User: Fold tripeptidyl-peptidase II from Mycena alexandri.
Amino acid sequence: MWLNSVVSLLPLAILALALPSKDCEHQVKEAVVPPRGWTIFGPAPPDHIIKLRIALPQSNFRALEEQLYAISDPYHERYGAHLTKEEVEELVAPHPESVDSVTDWLSSHGIGEGDISRSPAGDWLTIKVPVSVVETMLDTKYHIWKHTASGEYIVRTTSYSLPKNLLEHVDLIQPTTMFGTFRKLKSTIHSVTAADSQIQSQHSPPIVDLATGVTVDASCNTTITITCLKEIYNAVNYTPSAHVGNSVGITGYLGEFANRADLQTFYADQVPAAAAANSTFNFISVAGGLDPQDPDDAGGEANLDVQFAFGLSFPVPSTFYSTAGSPPFIPDSGTPTDTNEPYTDWLDFILSHPNPPLAISTSYGDDEQTVPESFARRACAGFAQLGARGVSLTASSGDGGVGDGDPDPATQECLTNDGQNRTQFIPGFPASCPFITAVGGTVFFPERAVSFSGGGFSNYFARPAYQDEAVKGFLKALPKGTYSGLFNPNGRGIPDVAAQSDFFRVFIGGKPFSIGGTSASSPTFIGFVALLNDGRLKKGLPSLGFLNPLLYSKAVSGFNDITTGHNPGCGTEGFNATKGWDAVTGLGTPDFGKLLKLVT
Ligand SMILES: *[C@@H]1O[C@H](CO)[C@@H](O)[C@H](O)[C@H]1NC(C)=O
Ligand SMILES: *[C@@H]1O[C@H](CO)[C@@H](O)[C@H](O)[C@H]1NC(C)=O
Ligand SMILES: *[C@@H]1O[C@H](CO)[C@@H](O)[C@H](O)[C@H]1NC(C)=O
Ligand SMILES: *[C@@H]1O[C@H](CO)[C@@H](O)[C@H](O)[C@H]1NC(C)=O
Assistant:
């Protein structure tokens, strides 16, 4: 499905030379049915400035993908031979013919080289132009759309066109048809409740899992701390180093800010060595992302993520990325406002960075169907580029079980957005991207699947080879006809793995809270990935990079298979956690001790 082999571009090159783009007839590039919940509020102001992103086809993406799979396969001779930034950029660079055609087209609309900002590989172009100009360029009409339930306004269109000769030279242009915006980019927190100032001292004896012999404090059944996670996942007494070139990162969106004073309070509560060292994270602002440190600005999601990912991996150098969301569009203010899309600002930034963190967790996602497929594919291709450079990426699988987890009563759950309103299981993105490790949720000890654990199958991405056997085994064991028509049995299966996801003891604004959600699972898993990288770097081995091919092959025996619980949604009981991979907890939860032996 990945677009544009070099071969397919050749005849077009001739076409492009024959016709100056401005005179060429337009043809529809992409059209969508307006998603449920959005209605037209009025015409878009002609002087409203749009930050328009144009994606040129990555002419050699297939080669990048092949190399990525080779260097991520633990049985391949090139395992761990990560690519450099320059090598990756060469592989995703657009064909010169695409660059020239698009540049000529922009120039015919008065947009010169000085107005264009290009990504390092040249595969993304960004321009700032008024609505009136974009409407001519794309032969379309923008409107102000209102989201009925939230009252949010955005400027979008439902269809756009390009001169025929440009169709093959452009993958996508946004913002046009993308209605999944910042309101919908949900953090995957399921619940937040105030917690006791002290962890309830338990006089009960430790809990022993009779199957594995693992022993865990009794308090861990109701309150998850760093110590609990190290006990449950067999990492007690492992000491990582701050000096072997390791690193770990957390992304923040939606105005979620990580508070440094809260991190100190958390460390005093749970990681005394980090408290004694006043350990903190590097802060990086992406596209103007802020870093307010007032206790009132502390974000539950951001604090959960940094406290657990960095608490587990201390003293590994850590970074928090705050990516700005666009300010909401206010239709009667008359002020032209920028609009941008989730993920792309962060991907632009991180891909142009010479040394991104080796393990990065994201706890934000959206219903896959609200992200246009063309956009999801390009963002996913960006994640593949990071994987090729040796970066491991995890994302929460979502908090709606097999459904969309939308708490908004005005939108009906689990209906397709294609105008037909069919009932369907709704997977999440970016968890559905095959180059991300999707992390589902468990609860209690001994562990079982948590009911809200996001799981299911992508409608955009086909099942990747690395999980073919595991997922087929799961599908084969389903009773015949199970949920027929509700999910795509050939889609990428979600999640890949799981980790604890409820009762996390987090400090926000100086006070302890108990937080639940797969928002907790992803930073937990990345913490253990950082520890595994520590083990490898100490031995002079490269970082783990893109994890999935390893997880489904050599590393399978390093997981605790979760076989109880299920993830109801869309009026069904959802899927069951079963022996082997399942669409609730994936391969299971990490046994750090075993995984360390397998990867070092
Ligand atoms: C852990 O909590 C669950 C739910 O409250 C309970 O069913 C289970 O018995 C508890 N386990 C132990 C060992 O206390
Ligand atoms: C940590 O910070 C405190 C308060 O600012 C200071 O007194 C202490 O010396 C610092 N400790 C280290 C190890 O830097
Ligand atoms: C789908 O739902 C929308 C809004 O609820 C409605 O306007 C539309 O007619 C429905 N379409 C079909 C095919 O039922
Ligand atoms: C889940 O397990 C229950 C109990 O064994 C069974 O009745 C049900 O059919 C299973 N559901 C699926 C989707 O496999």
In short: The two ends are 35 Å apart (CA to CA). The chain has 15 helices and 29 strands.
